[in-house]
Amino acid sequence: MKTSNRILVLLGVFLLAFIAAMTAIFCVKGAVPDTLIQYTMGAGGVEALLLAGIKVSKVITGDKPRESEDEP
Question: N- to C-terminal Cα distance for the chain?
Answer without folding.
Answer: 20
